[in-house]
Amino acid sequence: MSNQTRDAEYTLGRGESETERLIEQSQLYEDVTRRFLLRSSITKGMKVLEVGSGAGDVALTLAGFVGPDGAVVGVDVNADILETARTRANDAGVENVEFVPGDARMLELPNDFDAVVGRLVLLYMASPADALKKLATHLRPGGIVAFQEIDFTLYPAIVHRDTPLVNTSIELGMTVFERSGAHIGMGLNLYRAFVEAGLPEPTLHFEAPMGGSAAWPGYEYLANSFRSILPLIEAYGLATAEEVDIDTLAERLRAEVVAAKRPLVLPPHITAYASLAT
Ligand SMILES: C[S@@+](CC[C@H](N)C(=O)[O-])C[C@H]1O[C@@H](n2cnc3c(N)ncnc32)[C@H](O)[C@@H]1O
Predict the structure, then answer these.
(1) Segments of 56-119 assigned E as strands
(2) 260 near 173, Cβ under 8 Å?
(3) From ligand 1's centre to the CA of 156, what distance in Å?
């Protein structure tokens, strides 16, 4: 991870199908996030700042953790997607969450939060360490910093010759994220980002959903991720829409994985948390 002068463009686009993909993704990574929040000691009554809310999944999970006596403030630069987040919170009868549009690094926010939490957001920021340093200023003494980020860089270690479609898909996906300016090794670089931000050394964990059965939902999820990055795949001249053949991708991945008996590993997420000095 090198610090950059510019943020990445949002690699996955801003369309409605991307909003649906974020919700689908949350379902696959929900357990990872719940374990992470539990370990981070996010608990009843806390006031939490949530960064990069997207369709609201992390904020809604946090709302359950902090309970009716706590509160969650979710922030996203994409004001449109926050409409979906608000609707979902209302539909679920969740009253202790509010969503604020804006760049989380620039907004005027209170400085008495008990925790700042984010999932899949530092990878888009030019300098994750600078962002963490700024975000931590919103915490009370002893407050918690907790981030969950993706890492693509270990994929080459699990490439297997039995699964050529999986291999080329992963290669293509990694290239698109890298070309768009996202930090593809953000997960493994969380430690460095915390330390460079002047935060205490974080406690780290590493998890990846994986599956090999025909019924596993990961194939559709991966294909929908490719639907979101297809415009960039074409714009960068990496492959044509015909070559990607998005409408059959999930089925082809499923058939290959099931035949090879080689489970597909979804992108690993690394979680990191630390508490400020009291
Ligand atoms: C991959 S989505 C993740 C959404 C959500 N955290 C989740 O895990 O379901 C990343 C979100 O971060 C938002 N984002 C990126 N940079 C941001 C910034 N500087 N401030 C606030 N939100 C940001 C994007 O608009 C996008 O909605």
Answers:
(1) 71-76, 97-101, 113-119
(2) no
(3) 27
Contact of 274 with 192, CB cutoff 8 Å:
no
* pTM score of the predicted model: 0.94
CA dihedral 226, 227, 228, 229 (to 10 degrees): 50
**Residue with token string 């090999």:** 212
Instruction: Specify the pairing of strand 71-76 against strand 97-101.
Output: parallel
Q: Is any ligand 1 atom within 6 A of the Cβ of residue 103? A: yes
pLDDT at residue 9 tops 90? no
Residue 101 pLDDT level (bands cut at 50, 70, 90): very high
User: Which CATH topology does 16-275 take?
Assistant: Rossmann fold (3.40.50)
d(CA 157, CA 180): 23
Type and span of the H or E element at 147: strand 139-150
Pocket-testing residue among 76, 130, 135, ligand 1, by greatest number of atoms within 8 A of Cβ: 76
9-18, 107-116, 179-188, range with the lowest pLDDT:
9-18
pLDDT of the residue at 128: 98
Angle, helix 16-39 to helix 57-66, in steps of 10 degrees: 30
The answer for 78, left when phi > 0, alpha when psi is -120 to 50, beta otherwise, is beta
What values do phi and psi take at 271, rounded to 5?
Answer: -115, 145
Beta carbons within 10 angstroms of residue 105's beta carbon = 18
CA distance 5 to 12: 21
> Which of 18, 77, 108 most suits a substitution to test ligand 1, by most atoms within 8 Å of the C-beta?
77
Domain boundaries, the chain: 16-275
Q: Is the CB of 104 under 6 A from ligand 1?
A: yes
124 lines ligand 1 (CB under 6 A): yes
